[in-house]
């Protein structure tokens, strides 16, 4: 039975992915900080497949290394790692941001992702051919926008780290993909605005954003491609999102 480790399974893409992989009969290792949500998911999905939940902050490298070093045999070797845990904070301009918010994004989206990848690599190498690392990047990693500052830069790291991992994993059979979604309706904007439900609702109102299930479907597709195929980067936007022209700062008339 193939197994998948999903970080950030308590919400959004991670939770939808847990459901999608369970439907296909995969064993699940689900992580997040909110234990009660993990337990609820476990009691629902363990009727279908083996489920292990780990209450874990990806920023804590010792805890990550310990937890992944002690996985029960039943879940090994690991077929797929979904590095999904992440967040954006501080939508305001860089010059108005609290430095702590930049650190939180770097610690989660970069250091956390690296912590989990480092601990999971031996488990994926034990699988070899057909194994995958699916990293949640973002359109923000490729395309700049106002208020993107460290969030976009952290996702650019995810892209380049994914590509560089591919170089080192050549010959091992382990695949790496940077999956880069655009606007998707999850708790993402609620987190970004520090709990402003109105702002979150306003962003998604009157349009058709991606849904968590859309991304879960892509994750499942990537994880089950024939073993000789590696999609390096998959960028997905809703049809109703596109780029804007450059902004120009002009003198007053
Ligand atoms: N929604 C969007 O528009 C897009 C999102 N993304 C990326 O997709 C990923 C998932 O986002 P999405 O599902 O939308 O957002 P959600 O806020 O719905 O989910 C984020 C998940 O990350 C977990 N998480 C956050 N910080 C930590 C931490 N320190 N340790 C462990 N888990 C953590 C949360 O769990 P808990 O709080 O329980 O720890 C939660 O399960 C993120 O990396 C995001 O940057 C990329 C492109 C578009
Ligand atoms: O990563 C999230 C999508 S966006 O807010 O940068 O468009």
Automatic annotation (TrEMBL):
<feature type="domain" description="Ketoreductase">
    <location>
        <begin position="2"/>
        <end position="186"/>
    </location>
</feature>
<protein>
    <recommendedName>
        <fullName>sulfoacetaldehyde reductase (NADPH)</fullName>
        <ecNumber>1.1.1.313</ecNumber>
    </recommendedName>
</protein>
<dbReference type="InterPro" id="IPR002347">
    <property type="entry name" value="SDR_fam"/>
</dbReference>
<dbReference type="Pfam" id="PF00106">
    <property type="entry name" value="adh_short"/>
</dbReference>
<keyword id="KW-0560">Oxidoreductase</keyword>
<comment type="subunit">
    <text>Homodimer and heterotetramer.</text>
</comment>
<dbReference type="GO" id="GO:0016616">
    <property type="term" value="F:oxidoreductase activity, acting on the CH-OH group of donors, NAD or NADP as acceptor"/>
</dbReference>
<dbReference type="InterPro" id="IPR020904">
    <property type="entry name" value="Sc_DH/Rdtase_CS"/>
</dbReference>
<comment type="similarity">
    <text>Belongs to the short-chain dehydrogenases/reductases (SDR) family.</text>
</comment>
<dbReference type="InterPro" id="IPR057326">
    <property type="entry name" value="KR_dom"/>
</dbReference>
<dbReference type="InterPro" id="IPR036291">
    <property type="entry name" value="NAD(P)-bd_dom_sf"/>
</dbReference>
<comment type="pathway">
    <text>Organosulfur degradation.</text>
</comment>
